[in-house]
Amino acid sequence: MTKTYTFYPGCSSEKKASAANLDISVQSMCHILDIRLNEIKDWNCCSASIGYAEGGELPRLALSARNLGLAQKQSHRKDVVATCAACWLALRETNDRLNEDAEIKAEMDEVLQAAHLTYDGSLRPRHLVEVLIEDIGWDTLKEKVKKPLTGLKIAGYVGCQTNRPFGVCGDSFENPTYLDKMIEICGATPVAFDKKVACCGGALAFSELEKVCGLIKDILQSAKDSGADLIVTPCPVCQLNVEVYQDKVNQMFGTRFKIPVVYYSQLFVAAWGGSWKQAALHQQIVPANVLKRFVR
Amino acid sequence: MAYDLSFAKDVYENAEEGHWIKMCMQCGVCAGSCPLGPHWEFSPRQLFQMIRAGKAEEVLKSESMWMCVSCYHCMVRCPRGLPITHIVHGLARFAVEKKRADKDQVTRRFAKILWENMERGGRIGEMALTTKLYMVNGIPDGVKKGMEMKDQAMSMLKSGRLKMDPLHLSRIRGHAGFKAMLKKAREIEQKKRES
Prior knowledge:
The structure holds two protein chains of two kinds.
Chain A: E1 3-8, H1 20-33, E2 35-39, H2 51-55, H3 57-74, E3 79-82, H4 85-100, H5 102-113, E4 124-127, H6 128-136, H7 138-143, E5 153-156, H8 178-185, E6 189-190, H9 204-207, H10 209-225, E7 230-233, H11 236-244, H12 246-253, E8 261-263, H13 264-271
Parallel strand pairs in A: 1-2, 1-3, 3-4, 5-6, 5-7, 7-8
Chain B: H1 6-14, H2 29-33, H3 44-52, H4 56-60, H5 73-77, H6 84-97, H7 106-121, H8 126-134, H9 139-148, H10 150-158, H11 175-194
Helix pairs in contact in B: 7-8
């Protein structure tokens, strides 16, 4: 039976935006799993993890409150699913603040009124990874595998905001295991990867790359040292930073990294028998050629 | 000599999540967990103690808060459960409100450019955002920066992950309500600051 969720894609998952490959592969993945994602109509940006400085408290929280208010107005469903780490974090933080702080809640009622909206705090922001694990289940995820990625060594790079501060399904902050389990289910081998929860530099890769290039180098070096053929991640910022700046890292440190970085959703689509295009693998910057022998 | 507690009180009452600073026991786990360690002058722990000691100018003018990459390592590791990442964000915002934040600090400027890009249409336009950020120090410097990053930009364009949209003119349908909402939120915050 089709499972339906309210969906908040966020700016990077828009058509031709930086995580277009995430969105396309997520849609393919959900199609195979018979999940329907109903996009919140007319959603706005959450201002990500840098909105605090110019927005301040109430305007910043209002961004996510508007999205939750729209979700509540447009559907009776309680779950709002996000695929972007920062979008998910912003929705959850806002929802928690509204439920825990009566003063903020009262102010937000007044703020939302200006946009002709209300929100009572009762929705449940969830990450798509949680939906896969809790609602679909490991067994089903495994049953779908048609092209096991046998022999591939993969570094599961969980990163920051899909892991901290909220965590996925109660998994550990220091050594989460769900991504390694996903790699295993796809038939590949998760390597011991000591930068699993390290930071890629986040928004500072945009504004002050020279300060965070070393962090990206350490992640790539650790993946290489662990013998990984590719890196897999759930986060659009991790994916972008670790993939697009590899040439810069190579220039800066005299290294020769050329490691593909793909999303968990791309890996699942590949292992479940989807096409190169359905997995959006044609949209990689460092080509994921190691997947070619498995994908049509 | 007695400490002047007026700055600490101001932070506790008026910076977002600032009241938590009272709970800090100066263990330094936040400092040891921060990936930007080599780049800040003061760790969160030091900032918190400086606030208690009344060092207003040193704290507010510091670049340290702007080094936060929002990785939340400090927050999940704090043995007292302080929301350190959010406190540091709150201090950065507090410095902006007090007009002490260094206007030339690049990440501070990036935060402003991103907010304006987002508010103009309700969503981010990545090309307009990048162009504006690269041009922050004028056109010649922007062209230089653009040339440095041209391989990255070309690879994004070629892979279909960067939209040719330098002007970013699109608007969400409810944009008028969206603007009214943000205006209202700012009014409420302003009123609170004045009272």
